[in-house]
Amino acid sequence: MILDKSSVMFLGDSITKGVSFIDGKYRVLEKSFFNILSKTILSSTENRGRFGLTSRRFLKDLFKLNGLDADITFFGIGGNDCNFNWKEIAEHPEQDHFPAVSKEEYENNLCRIYDNFKESQSKIITLNCPPLHAEKFFSFLGEYFNAENIMKWLKNISRIYYHHESYNNIFEKVTRSYGIEMIDIRGKFLMDDNLDDLIGIDGMHPKAAGHELISGSISNFLNENAAIQ
Description:
229 residues; alpha/beta; five-stranded parallel β-sheet; 46% helix; 17% strand
């Protein structure tokens, strides 16, 4: 059944946009979670997901969102904030390197974003980050950069996962502190016994099966919480 009484906006990065790494290129999946939802339970939808979006860039463009005039706004961000310049790391593993947005700035940016959301009439529902598949991610980096040098800097592949998780923890902490509802997408992925089938070859972006899981999680949340009247 299509629930068409509310307008819905999706804000976020390339995962929101529906991007996955397919045949050597980043492409928008035909069966992204947004496309699935817009054809099943949501009819008045808009996707403003942007490839490479960080919380810093989101704040700069916040004025373009027309006051968040959708009835419901789904929001998630953080995967690009925690990313590193892996080319520089591969070339200079002996140096210090820092994420695109520090943890402190990321937390502050989220607070500023949520403060803005409070001024809108839109109902905000957040999506936390799907887990990063460290082994796939490292192998993917090795296709483009010197993997040996990256490992010199990393020391341990699992560091990739825990670094990503620390940003997700910040997202969840700040979201809870503002009393904003959150769909635990990350937990759904981690509870699945076939994580390899859900995360793409780059270790970051979900495959079609991952997007199906996300769409199902959102559908269940909306039905259980009667978010759309």
